[in-house]
Amino acid sequence: MAEMSGKLDEYTERANHAEQQIELLIKELESLKSGGPAAGQQESTQESQEIDKLKAENARLKYRLNILKRAVEKECGGGPGAKKTIKMEERTPERMTNINRTLVSLFRAAIDASFPDLTEPPCPVLPSSKGGDYQFNGAMPISGLLKASGVKMAPRDIATKIVDNVAENQLIQKLEVAGPGFVNIFLRKEFIQEELDLLVERGVRPPSTEGKKRVVVDFSSPNIAKEMHVGHLRSTIIGDSVSRLLEFLGHDVLRINHIGDWGTQFGMLIAHLQDEFPNFVKESPPISDLMAFYKQSKARFDSDEAFKARAYQCVVKLQAHEADYIKAWNLICDVSRKEFQKVYDRLDVVIQERGESFYQDRMNVVVEQLESKNFLEEDEGRKVMFGPGVDVPLTVVKSDGGYTYDTSDMAALKQRIEEEKADWIIYLTDAGQSTHFQIVFACAQKAGFYNPAAVRLDHVGFGVVLGEDKKKFKTRSGDTVRLVELLDEGLKRSLDKLKEKEREKVLTPEELKAAQESVAYGCIKYSDLCHNRNHEYVFSFDKMLEDKGNTAVYMLYAYTRIRSITRTAKVSDEELARIRKEKNLSVSLSHEKEIKLGKLLLRFPEVIHRITEDLLLHSLCEFMYEVAN
Fold first, then answer.
1. Which residues pair with 556 in a beta bridge?
2. Which residues of 384-397 are buried (b: 16+ CB within 10 A; e: fewer)?
3. By the 8 A CB rule, do 51 and 26 touch?
4. Which helix (H) or strand (E) holds 385?
5. How far is the C-alpha of 86 from the C-alpha of 105, rounded, in Å?
6. What residues form DSSP beta bridges with 215?
7. Phi, psi (5° rounding) for residue 404?
8. Rounded Cα gap, residues 300 and 298, in angstroms
9. Which helix (H) or strand (E) holds 424?
10. CB neighbours (10 Å) of residue 316?
11. Rounded Cα gap, residues 110 and 108, in angstroms
C-alpha cells in the first residue's frame, strides 16, 4: 500500500511539473511569434514540437495517475470505489421519458465499466434515420483519448466492448456495431407502445428536470414616454415564450419588465408638464399622445437654455422625492403604462413591472460596498470598475455623481440573487448588448454578488428585425415602426387572408374576429420564433401568411384539419377514454408510418431539454413542423 501511495505522489509531481513546463513554453512561443523574424519562426516551430511532446507525456501521466487513484480508492474501500454511480432517469406517469438522456446514462455507465481510467469521456447519442432509432458515435473520440494515454485500440473494438457492458433495460431492443465504430440503437416496440398509450391517456407532460428552480426572466423593457416599437418585438415574444416553457417544466418563474422609468429625461418632461398643465396636481392632464409630448419637451430642452436649466432643477427635486415632482412623474409613467398594457394584452403577455426607479436605494448600497472593497477606480472624474477577463470597465458613478445603466444592472442582479433567491436569471436583449452583460457578470462575480457555481446567468441575445429590402425595418419615411401599427397591419392582412378563403361565409362575426386575431398575432410570434434568434430575420407579412412551409398559417391549418376529423368522428375525449378502458385498446403501431410518427412524438422531451440548455426556441418550431408534415 505504501509503495502504491509513493507511486501516486511521484506521478502527481511529474504531471504538475509537465503542466508548468507546458505553460512556460507556451509563453515563450507567444513571445517568439510577436518577434516576427525568420529565425524566431524556426525557433517557434521547435517550441511547438516540444509542447506537443510534453502534452503527450502529460496525458500518459494523467492516465496512469487515474489508474493509481482508483487502485488506492479500491484498496481503502472508500471514495467513489471501483465503479461510478450513474443516475438513471426515473420513469413516472406524470413526466414524459427523455429517451436521449436515458440512453446517454446507459452508455456512460457502459463506457465507465469498459474504460474506468478515462476522465470524462465523450458520450454522443443522437437520433438516427438510418440503421437504428439512435446512434452512439463516441468510439472514435474515445480511441483518440486512449491513444494519447499510450493505449492503442481500434474504434470498432471500443464500440464492441462498450456494447457488451450496456446494462439490461426496458428501452433497448438491440445494439449493432456498424462501420468503423458506430453503434446503432434500436428501441423496444413495447416501450414505444407504453409511452404512446400514456401520451394518449395523460396528454403532453413535461420531461423530468433537475429540481424546481426560481427563475427571473428580464424581457421587453420599453422606456417611459416613448412608444413600443419593432425593436421591442423580439424581446417581448422570445421572453414570453422562454417564460412559458420554463413554467411548463414546473419552475417558479418571475417575469420582470425592467422599464426605463428614471433619469434626466424626466426633468424636461416635468418642466414641460408644469408649463402645459400648471394645474396637474389637482386635475389629471389629458395627455393622449405622450410621444408628441416627449418630442415637444426635447425640442425645448435642445433650444432653450433657460428651459434646460429648469429641467435639471426638476431632476434634482425628483431625486429628492418632493411630492409635486413625484406626482408629475407618476402621471407621466401611468400614461405610458396604459399604452404598454394594450400591447401586452393583444399579444397575451403577462409581465410584472419593475423599473429602474425600484433600484435607486439599492444602487447607493452597491456603490458603498464597491468603494469599501476598493473595487472602484478614478477615471477622468468617473468611478469605474474592471472585471476579470474583460477590457472595458463598468461606469458605476458618472463625473456629475449620477448613476448609469451599469449601476442599475449591478443593483438589479444583486437584488434578484439576494432578495428574490434566484437560481437562474435570463436577460432578453439584442445581441449588441452582449459585451455589456459580460462586463456586468464579471464585475458582479468579482464583487461577490454572484457565484457561478450557485446561480446560472444567461444573456439571450438576438439579431435585429430587417425589412424586405434587407435593411433595418423602418417606415417609408425612415421612422422606427410603431408596434401598435405593426399589429394593426397584421390584423388587416389576416382578415384579407381569411376572406380569400371565404371563411366569413361559415364563421359568425365573433368567430371571424377570434380567427383574425389568432392568425395575425400567431403569425407575428411564430415568424420570430421559427428563426434562429442569433440571426437577423426579414419581417414579411406575405411570407408569414403563406399556408405552405414552416409558418403559423400552415400549423393552424394542420391543427384545424385534425380537429375537423375529431368533429366528423363525433367522439369526445371522454368517450374515447371510456372505450379505450373498456376494450383495453392501445395506440395502433401496425403500420410502418405509425411507428415512425410514434417515435417522433416521443422525441418531444429531448427537444425541450435541449432548449433549456441553449434557449434556442426555433428547435421546437422545427420539431412541430416535422410532426405536422
1. none
2. bbbbeebeebbbbb
3. yes
4. strand 382-385
5. 6
6. 253, 424
7. -125, 180
8. 5
9. strand 424-428
10. 11
11. 5
Complete edge-to-edge strand list for the sheet that includes strand 252-257? 352-353, 252-257, 214-218, 424-428, 456-460
Grid coordinates representing 213 are: 428552480
Q: How far is CA 487 from the centre of its chain?
A: 26
Report the DSSP beta bridge partners of residue 456. 424
Q: Could you tell me the CA-to-CA distances from 174 to 166, 177, 187, 393, 519 in Å, in that order? A: 11, 10, 7, 57, 46
What H or E segment, with its residue span, contains residue 125? strand 125-127
Q: Give the SS3 label for residue 244.
A: helix
257 SS3 class:
strand
pLDDT tens, position by position, 522-539? 999 999 999 999 999 899
Type and span of the H or E element at 284: none
Worst-scoring range by mean pLDDT, 31-35, 136-140, 271-275, 586-590?
Answer: 31-35
C-alpha cell at 93: 406517469
Q: Please provide residue 105's backbone torsions phi and psi, each rounded to the nearest 5 degrees.
A: -60, -45
Helices within 570-629 (DSSP H only): 573-583, 592-601, 604-614, 618-628
User: Checking DSSP bridges between strand 352-353 and strand 252-257, what pairing results, if any?
Assistant: parallel
**SS3 per-residue string spanning 46-108:** HHHHHHHHHHHHHHHHHHHHHHHHHHHHHHHCCCCCCCCCCCCCCCCCCCECCHHHHHHHHHH
As a whole number of angstroms, the longest Cα–Cα distance in the chain is 92
Q: What is the pLDDT of residues 386-400, one digit of tens each?
A: 999 999 999 999 998
**DSSP symbols for 439-453:** HHHHHHHHHTS--TT
pLDDT single digits (tens) 344-385: 999 999 999 999 999 999 999 999 999 999 999 999 999 999
pLDDT of 496 strictly over 50:
yes
- How far apart CA 549 and CA 570 sit, in angstroms, is 30
User: How many Cα atoms occupy the beta-carbon half-sphere of 215 within 13 Å?
Assistant: 22
Specify the 3-state DSSP secondary structure of 366: helix
In a 3-state reduction of DSSP, which class is residue 557?
helix
CB-based contacts of 238, cutoff 8 Å, min separation 6:
219, 428, 460, 462, 528, 529, 533, 617
> How many alpha carbons fall within 13 Å on the CB side of residue 98?
23
CB distance 537 to 525 below 8 Å: no
Residue burial 81-112, b: 16+ Cβ < 10 Å; e: rest: eeeeebeebebeeebbbbbbbbbbbbbbbbbb
199: Cβ contacts below 8 Å, ≥ 6 apart? 96, 587, 601, 602
Determine which helix (DSSP H) or strand (DSSP E) holds 259, and give its type and residue range. none
What is the helix (H) or strand (E) element at residue 217, kind and residue range? strand 214-218
Instruction: Report d(CA 363, CA 410) in Å as an integer.
Output: 8
Please spell the DSSP secondary structure of 131-154, one letter per residue.
Answer: SSSEEE--HHHHHHHHHHTT----
Distance CA 366, CA 411 (A): 6
Rg (CA), the chain: 31
- Backbone φ, ψ for residue 424 (5° rounding): -155, 130
pTM above 0.70, yes or no: yes
pLDDT tens string 562-600: 989 988 988 888 888 898 888 888 999 999 999 999 999
Q: Where are the alpha helices (DSSP H) in 180-264?
A: 189-202, 233-248
In order of 76, 181, 258, the CA distances from 253 in angstroms are: 46, 44, 15
Q: Is 127 strand, coil or helix?
A: strand
Angstrom distance (rounded) from CA 221 to CA 228: 9
Which residues are 482's β-sheet partners? 229
DSSP, collapsed to helix, strand or coil, labels residue 459 as: strand
